[in-house]
Design the sequence.
């Protein structure tokens, strides 16, 4: 198995998931704007992250000339995944409080949702970074 195969596979996944996420992020702008400023910020982060995933996927399947840019994109995507997890914690806590759930329930639901979003959001960017490092060492 070639060392740059991981980068190509993750790049293809980034293209597929980035395109689907971009469509989803644009379609959720209306419903998230009802949540106020946090909903709009969450939608903007989702659009930026989806566009960057799409761009990282396209750059990852191209020549090896742009591995430095791919590495920078990987770090940005990791940071956005962490930011998305934090926003998930805040939004779920606010929504749970708005529907009348107790403070403890809202915080617990927000924390669980945020951690799950962070863990799953970090899988592809971390694998992408590993693939970039393997490709640059090859």
Sequence:
């Amino acid at each position: 198995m070639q060392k740059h195969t991981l980068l190509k596979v993750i790049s293809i996944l980034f293209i597929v998931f980035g395109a689907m996420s971009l469509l989803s992020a644009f379609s959720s702008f209306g419903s998230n704007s009802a949540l106020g400023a946090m909903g709009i910020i969450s939608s903007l982060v989702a659009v930026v992250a989806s566009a960057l995933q799409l761009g990282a996927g396209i750059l990852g399947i191209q020549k090896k000339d742009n591995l430095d840019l791919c590495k920078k994109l990987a770090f940005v995507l990791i940071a956005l995944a962490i930011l998305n997890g934090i926003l998930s914690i805040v939004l779920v806590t606010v929504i749970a409080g708005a529907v009348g759930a107790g403070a403890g329930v809202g915080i617990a639901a927000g924390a669980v949702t945020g951690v799950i979003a962070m863990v799953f959001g970090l899988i592809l960017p971390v694998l992408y970074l590993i693939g970039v490092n393997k490709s640059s060492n090859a």
Q: What stands out?
A: The chain has a mean pLDDT of 79. Residues 103-137 form the longest helix (35 residues). Residues 5-137 form one domain.
